[in-house]
Design brief:
The protein is α/β, with parallel strands linked by helices. The two termini are about 35 Å apart.
Length: about 675
């Protein structure tokens, strides 16, 4: 699956006030443009004329100069932007507008461009799910074609043609399995079939809005295959029960519902959650494709065929929906703005590919790693990539510091160098600013604001005050720190400042809140202890911060000088730099590096200083497993990467997992659970 990096642009429209509709635009989660307003009078749009309606809708949305400036600035900073339209529940009259027709003058449709994946984002506290790595990707195809459709005012569904259309869409795509729902398409039959583990439910049939009830209905069947109108609340309740099944394997859970049926996305102007599609998202479905008007059969077939071929290429549902709309426009098929995507996932990633193992051992990589974890002979090194999503990565942090302090050089994403520049002016202010940026990002992710005039607390105090250990579970089914805690290892090393790993360990079932947080006071040799007391155990684990801790500003390793001084201390005092038991574990266990990039100075310090001084020749051959943060595998660099690590671990077995940390940890967790069940 190919991947692209997109900036994050959220447009949030709030309840109408005296000036109109307040609009907040947020770029990349941290830059908030000044609040502005939409005119209170809604534009007149026609979904059958998307070219005209789209430009009128765009002109209305960005009529305020502040909003036009925000859009232009975001576009100038990043051409590729993932656009989420978030309309508050208190502005339901805006939901029926055909936002999928949005079109800037003289440019393409926003919702039909690969540069601007578009979705209607529905926020909420429920678990949005995470990318599925399990294969095959399984699709349940439910075609509702009751024998008496014509008697009830509907046309007959051409089941065979629909099946052939989907088969053509999936032809030649490996690791995808589609299963046709047997027998009459009843709600009960769909529920029963889903228990076998499907990632996508693709429904083909008729839909309509009740004139009196204003509910959306699907034309399903009863056991005798006679027509029955099934309301949206019953369908949502069924899927809610299914998704709440905690016994289901995470890799088998439903991720997408595709409703190839008229009016399945029709919204009400009074109730924000009127309609089937939003109700399904509220029930916990991460992504729903539905039709917001009557759709032609040829349009629906063409859209679904283009959508699936694109989705299986990269796994991003909003990109796939945009590509499918573009295909409709190219084919001059009517109704390009009718299919709508309702999304709970911020990054749109439904499916992920398993990482690539560099080296000759292949599948034995996992076998060796899992056996060592079971024997408690594995020591993770946790890098910045593991905290991605909660905190900015080093490049983002560096860019913000560079902008704030007027860094004049081109390498604004080089954190040690930017920090060095700032630190020569005011070293203490630099460190406080680093923690302030990290804390502000965490607050925004959690949706909390600091109390006016309150003193800035430590990052770890803010994290703990939000009850992060519990709330993070509801925000992500595969939060990396929680999954690492389930490995029940005695020792976790980290170069991060946060306390996520400690809190996850304390929250682990059966751990009774036990987990210690220690750090290396590398600047002061007199305060170092010869060993940890008591020593780390699986039921009393230790998280050891190697590069400082947020509660001690002087301990932070941030600037270039910090890294050089740290390396010098290691060289002079390598035998006593770490506690004795930590040295022993590093020399005798599998070392698992997570969340680092090959060029990171942090990783170089670990290689050249901390680990290069281990007396490896006294022990058996070491196993080193490295997950490298990378969006795409570059075969040309394989030898370079292996040589890099073999330089420091000459007699060791080295395996490189090429992929992001969340991808690796999710796969590790899945394999670990299977391994434990098989023991």
């Amino acid at each position: 699956m190919s991947r692209q990096n997109y900036a994050d642009l959220e447009i949030r429209i709030l309840q109408k006030d005296a000036r109109g509709y307040p609009v907040e635009i947020t770029f990349n989660g941290d830059q908030e443009f000044p609040r502005a307003h939409l005119a209170g009078e809604l534009p007149t749009v026609d979904i059958d004329n998307p070219a005209i309606s789209g430009e009128e809708l765009f002109a209305w949305l960005f009529a305020d100069p502040l909003l036009a400036t925000a859009w232009a600035e975001a576009r100038g900073r990043q051409g590729q932007r993932r656009i989420r339209l978030r309309i508050d529940d208190t502005a339901p009259e805006l939901h029926p507008l055909p936002w999928e027709a949005l079109r800037a003058p003289v440019t393409s449709y926003i919702a039909a461009s690969d540069a601007t994946p578009f979705s209607r984002y529905i926020a909420g506290p429920w678990m949005p799910g995470s990318p599925v790595h399990k294969r095959p990707i399984r699709i349940l195809v439910a075609i509702s074609n009751p024998t008496d459709l014509v008697d009830n005012g509907f046309t007959t569904v051409e089941s065979q043609r629909e099946i052939e259309n989907l088969q053509k869409a999936l032809e030649g795509i490996p690791e995808v399995e589609s299963v046709l729902l047997p027998g009459p398409c009843t709600l009960s039959a769909i529920e029963t079939a889903l228990r076998d583990g499907f990632h996508i439910l693709h429904f083909i049939g008729h839909g309509f809005v009740g004139m009196e009830s204003n509910r959306t209905y699907l034309a399903l069947a009863d056991k005798e295959n006679y027509y029955t109108a099934t309301p949206d609340n019953e369908i949502a309740a069924m899927l809610s029960r299914h998704l709440a099944n905690t016994g289901a394997n995470e890799g088998d859970k439903l991720r997408l519902v595709f409703l190839s049926s008229c009016y399945s996305a029709t919204r009400g102007a009074v109730d924000a959650f009127q309609g089937l599609a939003p109700k399904l998202v509220m029930a916990g479905v991460p992504a729903v494709i539905a039709m917001q008007d009557k759709v032609l059969v040829d349009t629906a077939r063409h859209f679904s065929q283009s959508f699936y071929r694109e989705l299986m290429n990269h796994g991003q549902v909003d990109r796939a929906a945009n590509a499918a709309r573009a295909s409709l426009l190219t084919g001059q098929l009517a109704g390009a703005a009718i299919p709508a995507l309702f999304l709970r996932l911020r990054d749109g990633q439904l499916f992920g590919n398993r990482g690539i193992i560099l080296g000759a051992r292949g599948e034995s990589f996992w076998e060796t790693l899992l056996e060592n974890i079971a024997d408690k002979e594995c020591t993770p090194f946790i890098g910045p990539g593991v905290s991605a999503g909660w905190l900015p990565d080093n490049a983002e942090l560096s860019s913000q510091l560079a902008e704030k302090f007027g860094y004049p050089f081109a390498d604004a994403v080089n954190l040690p160098r930017v920090s060095q520049f700032i630190g020569t002016i005011d070293n203490r202010r630099l460190r406080k600013q680093v923690l302030s940026i990290l804390t502000d990002r965490f607050r925004k992710v959690m949706g909390i604001r600091p109390a006016p005039g309150a003193q800035q607390p430590d990052l770890s105090a803010v994290i703990e005050s939000t009850n992060w250990a519990e709330t993070s579970r509801s925000m992500s089914e595969t939060e990396p720190h929680h999954l690492l805690a389930e490995l029940e290892l005695p020792l976790y090393l980290t170069t991060n400042l946060d306390n996520f790993m400690t809190l996850a360990l304390r929250a682990r079932a059966g751990n009774a809140g036990r987990a210690r947080r220690e750090f290396i006071n590398w600047r002061n040799t007199k305060t170092r202890r010869a060993d940890l007391d008591p020593q780390p155990e699986a039921d009393d684990p230790v998280v050891l911060h190697l590069f400082g801790i947020d509660t001690d500003l002087n301990s932070l390793v941030v600037t270039e000088d910090d890294h050089l001084d740290y390396l010098a201390q290691l060289s002079r005092d390598h035998e006593q730099f770490l506690p004795n038991s930590v040295n022993t574990r590093l020399a005798t266990t599998t070392l698992l590096f997570l969340g680092y990039r090959l060029g990171d100075l942090d990783l170089k310090i670990l290689m050249r200083g901390l680990l290069n001084n281990l007396a490896l020749d006294r022990w058996d051959m070491l196993n080193v497993a490295v997950q490298l943060e990378s969006s795409e595998h570059d075969p040309a660099r394989e030898k370079e990467i292996l040589d890099y690590f073999q330089k420091y671990f000459a007699n060791s077995k080295i395996d490189i997992y090429w992929g992001d940390s969340r991808q690796f940890i999710a796969e590790l967790s899945s394999r670990w659970k299977e391994y434990r069940l098989g023991r």
